[in-house]
Amino acid sequence: MRRALLALMLALSLPVPVLGCSSDCRECHTIPEDKDHKVLSRCSECHKWHSDKALNGRCGADCFDCHDYKETIDKSSFHLVLLKCIECHKKLEEKSQALNLQDFLTEGGRQ
């Protein structure tokens, strides 16, 4: 739910709709220039923008709003790196949620 809300807020704040359909995370996000994120520069070599016809009027916040990640990983050995991405980003999200809960308990819960 939170992820969907953040994606909606981002979409509404941009002058044009820029979502996961660009095949390039760097369109919306500042990506660190390190070895773990270098692979992201290669996605758009194979994955171009989806056509309006292919999108059928919908576009997600990332590839996995429309594509099943297990099927995607199984389609190509190049996609195996996504397992590392998912593992790391899940940890980051859990940490973020824990910090937000702590903020609420120490500040927001006193109102």
Describe this entry's structure for a reader.
The chain has five helices and no strands. It is mainly α and 111 residues long.
Strand composition percent: under 5%
Structural class of the secondary elements? mainly alpha
**How would you characterize the largest beta sheet?**
none
Helix amount:
40-55%
Morphology:
globular
The H-and-E topology, N to C, reads as HHHHH
Tally of separate domains? 2
What is the distance, rounded to the nearest whole angstrom, between the alpha carbons of the first and last residues? 24 Å
Integer average pLDDT: 75
Low-confidence stretches: 14-18
Number of helices: 5
The tally of beta strands, per DSSP, is 0
Radius of gyration: 16 Å
Give the gist of this structure.
The protein is mostly helical and 111 residues long.
Key descriptive features of the protein:
mainly alpha, 111 residues, 2 domains
Give a topology summary.
Layout: H1 2-13, H2 43-46, H3 52-55, H4 69-75, H5 81-106
